[in-house]
Amino acid sequence: MRVLALLSLLCAAQAAPAPCQVTQLLSAPVTYAAPDSARGQISVRVSCPGTGWYRVQFSTPAGPLLAPGGPVVLRGERGEVRGEVQGVPLNLRVQGSRAFDLPLVVPAGQWTVPGGTYQVLFAVTTEAVDGGRP
Question: Which residues contact 133 (CB under 8 A, 6 or more apart)?
Answer without folding.
Answer: 53
